[in-house]
Amino acid sequence: MQSESAILKPQNVTRHVDKVGVLICGLLLYAALVPPFVSFRANRIVQGEGRFLLDSMPPPVGYGLIGIIILAAAVALFVANTKVRLATAFAALVALAVAVGLSASSLIPPENTYARVSAASGFWLLLAGLVVLATDAIARLDPKPLTRLILLAVSLLLLSAFLLSGLWKDLSIMKEYQSRSDIFWTEAQRHLQLALGSVFAAMLAGIPLGVLCFKVERIRAAMLNSLNIIQTIPSIALFGLLIAPLGWIGTHVPGASQIGIRGIGAAPAFVALFLYSLLPIVSNTVVGLAGVSPAVRDAARGIGMTGRQSLFKVEFPLALPIILTGIRIVMVQNIGLATIAALIGGGGFGVFVFQGIGQTAMDLVLLGTIPTVILGFAAAILLDALIDSKLLSRGKAR
Amino acid sequence: MIEIEGLTKRYGEATVVDNVSLAVQPQSVTVIVGTSGSGKTTLLRMINRLVEPTSGLIRIDGRNVLDLPGFELRRSIGYAIQGHGLFPHRTVAQNIATVPELLGWDRQRVSAKVHELLTLFQLDPKLYADRFPSELSGGQQQRVGVARALAAEPNILLMDEPFGALDPIIRAKAQEDLLAIQKKLGVTIVLVTHDMDEAFFLADRIAVMDKGKVVQYGPPAELVLNPATPFVRTLIGERERPLRLLSVATVSEIVEPGEAEGEPLTGSLSQRDALSAMLWAGRDSLPVVGTDGQKIGRIRRETLLQQAAGRS
Predict the structure, then answer these.
(1) Which of B100, B149, B233, B303 satisfies CB 3.0 to 4.6 Å to B227 for a cystine?
(2) Interface probe with B: pick from A303, A308, A323, A394, most Cβ of B within 10 Å
(3) So what's the pLDDT on residue A112?
(4) Residues 6 or more apart in contact with residue B213 via CB below 8 angstroms
(5) Could you report the predicted ipTM of this complex, rounded to two decimals?
């Protein structure tokens, strides 16, 4: 009897406990108490020393934050209401953001311009735990596309508010930004040009190519296989391969060098990103068109549509959600991949990443990485919302 | 009037439709039956040139179908298929409006036509016009498919297994509705099916296809009484011949003067249903009334049995 009840007991408890919540709860409590919250360095490049949460900020702030984290952990574990979970996650994220700023300001001695404070593993794990709590809640709520866009906008507005408030001005990453604020925005612009421009060019070329591959079966396998091979070439190797032909075009084609076509720089980066984008767009166009039901295609022809009318009025609109999924894949992929462009002088956020690696200044690496991650995340949410919206796939047969 | 002369379709070595000639009377229902692979669908699809003939000639109202570009020809011929082929991204109204829009009708004429057809097919325009096909039942989708085929007021309607995806009860209703609409609009229907009950219910004339050839073409009763080949006999079903015969004739054809007891039958009822009613009622004769409910006479079981045996 005794052993039986001992087995039954934990089951009775877990019935009321959220499974994902157990993970989040454990992560949050561990992150708040065990690893250092921030790291302090006497100057920019020396080894940092970890500071625990309570040692790194004024006690009231520290205890306040720990209280909020414990509350969030409890909510993750016991509260089933997803809206409460989401609100708690957001509130705790705001508290975490405030605390890390206050921590930096309190740790750096007045008038000291060399000392650096940057977020350490404790902070990052707390951030990860809370983001998982928030995204899990959002996934469970399964919000409408518009609601998701509003959530994205609110998050980005909150982030900008923090950046503009000066609360984070003593964090090392913000100091890196302040000394580079002018080139940061030119590199940001270049990054977007590379990532979005190459996707746009790949759409212009890839969708017609996809239609062609679908209509002419003979070239389909050849085309998709060659694009597949391009996809497998490592990006750095592709840059190298492009130096010779683009360099030749730059010197021999009149006007080419004026518009920036050279063996190194933005041109090969753009071409490489364009080539990487082609496969998902072409293959998704083929798959999307092939997914149109034969009855629908037969009806379109049978009631008197020309081939072109059937393509534009029926087949293409029905394939659009799948084509958009391909575009979403390359958009997110290219936002990340554009970082590599800096290696061959193409600019973009990668400039900070590679400078940071060269100087062993991890905060500079983060200055390049964090905006890239946020951009990719935002692009994914934006395009997912577009794909799911009834705007494009109205009445799509399920 | 559709005249088909010496029509042949070959794919490489295989002859799918072999030297077929037949004439479809205007404002009638012609049903092409046959087993799968008999070439019936290919024959149908050559009429609106979804399949181009290898040789032979098709004339519609005296005009060679090859004189027009294929897509223009198809806009003038209604086309409805199994599984309806509705465009899932367009509303019911947009689906029905497809061909009129291709023909460049003005907006008012298009919306009037859509309204008229939805009403004709017993779909309240207020309720259904803005729905998507996925929001309709199978029977409703099928009706919208036929409505779309009729939107540009074609004289000819080609149908390929149009009721194949429907369950039996909805199918029977859809068949009745189709006949009513055919009578109302006076459209010529050529329909392909493998269902002999459907063929006998709908057809003015049946064309039986076997291995690419039309082996018999005539009124349903003729197929029962004088099957041209053993294949036709098998297709009809030997044991079902009496009931098939009764199913294609109406009560009004054998009504005679006189009085009878019991629940009256209407003159438009099929003789098969009349016999069924009579057996169930356990009577030798039943009174017959017209559509206005006026008594017009009686029918006797004896007459029905003679009809069923093919002795009329």
Answers:
(1) B233
(2) A303
(3) 81
(4) B18, B19, B20
(5) 0.84
